[in-house]
Automatic annotation (TrEMBL):
EC number(s) stated in the UniProt entry for this protein: 2.5.1.129
Segments forming domain Flavoprotein: 4-173
Catalytic activity, reaction form: dimethylallyl phosphate + FMNH2 = prenylated FMNH2 + phosphate
Lineage of the species this protein comes from: Bacteria, Pseudomonadati, Pseudomonadota, Alphaproteobacteria, Sphingomonadales
Family stated for the protein in its record: Belongs to the UbiX/PAD1 family.
Function: Flavin prenyltransferase that catalyzes the synthesis of the prenylated FMN cofactor (prenyl-FMN) for 4-hydroxy-3-polyprenylbenzoic acid decarboxylase UbiD. The prenyltransferase is metal-independent and links a dimethylallyl moiety from dimethylallyl monophosphate (DMAP) to the flavin N5 and C6 atoms of FMN.
EC top class named in words: transferase
Gene: ubiX
Polar residues biased stretches: 204-214
Designated name of the protein: Flavin prenyltransferase UbiX
Length: 214
């Protein structure tokens, strides 16, 4: 598999997921081709204080959202796929219909048409029936809908643990080995995927959950 991936950051709440994802992919040695929508640029600033230059520093290459002639606008640019983190309802709707108005949604469209993995961390709540129908369409055309929903069995100690878990589970969807996600009752020594942090969390779960069957 190509160790090159496209990452989109759209204007849904949860900009931190995109930033953390880029940092993790960089640590793991992946080439990161990144596009941030106009609204995404704003939410990154409002929610984290980071600027587009901070995003550029986390990227192998950062493309302007209007540049529909960029490499990632073509399926001929071979990648492992694309992650949109977070994914707004607006961007999801564009991808679902194929009416792509900018580079972020165009890149998702070409990855889907070339049958590559596309994971959308859709964040909105509550969802009306139109949203749900649109998300169903996305699933039918091959996208994976992976909302950033906290896993409380992981006994997160704070925001970093919550974000890391969701980012780790998205990396799992690409088969990218990581120790960010908590592995439920995965004991030390049973998997190469488990890091020290996971062992630590596992111990906490043993004492907290007992035999509650989770
Ligand atoms: C602070 C802030 C938080 C937002 N949160 C969400 C959200 O969680 N989900 C969503 O779909 N839109 C959210 N929006 C609205 C989107 O940014 C807006 O629909 C925008 O047009 C999306 O454009 P994009 O898909 O090109 O990024 C938020 C906007 C702001 C300013």
């Amino acid at each position: 598999m190509s160790r090159r991936i496209v990452v989109g950051i759209s204007g849904a709440s949860g900009a931190i997921y995109g930033l953390r994802l880029l940092a993790a992919l960089g640590d793991l040695g992946w080439e990161r081709h990144v596009v941030v929508s106009r609204a995404g640029r704003r939410t990154i600033l409002e929610e984290t204080g980071a600027t587009i230059e901070d995003v550029r520093a986390l990227s192998t290459r950062l493309y302007p959202p209007e540049d529909i002639g960029a490499a990632i606008a073509s399926g001929s640019f071979v990648t492992a796929g694309m992650i949109v983190a977070p994914c707004s309802i607006r961007s999801a709707a564009e991808i679902a219909t194929g009416v792509t108005a900018g580079l972020l949604t165009r890149a998702a469209d070409v990855n889907l048409k070339d049958r590559r993995r596309v994971v959308l961390m859709v964040r909105e709540t509550p969802l009306h029936t139109g949203h749900l129908r649109m998300l169903t369409t996305l699933s039918e055309i091959g996208a994976i809908i992976a909302p950033p929903v906290p896993a409380f069995y992981a006994m997160p100690r704070g925001l970093d643990d919550i974000v890391d878990h969701s980012v780790g589970r998205v990396l799992d969807l690409f088969g990218i080995e990581n120790s960010l996600a908590h592995r439920w009752r995965d004991e030390p020594g049973t998997s190469d995927l488990i890091g020290a942090k996971t062992h630590d969390q596992s111990e906490r779960n043993q004492s907290t959950h007992g035999d509650c069957g989770l």
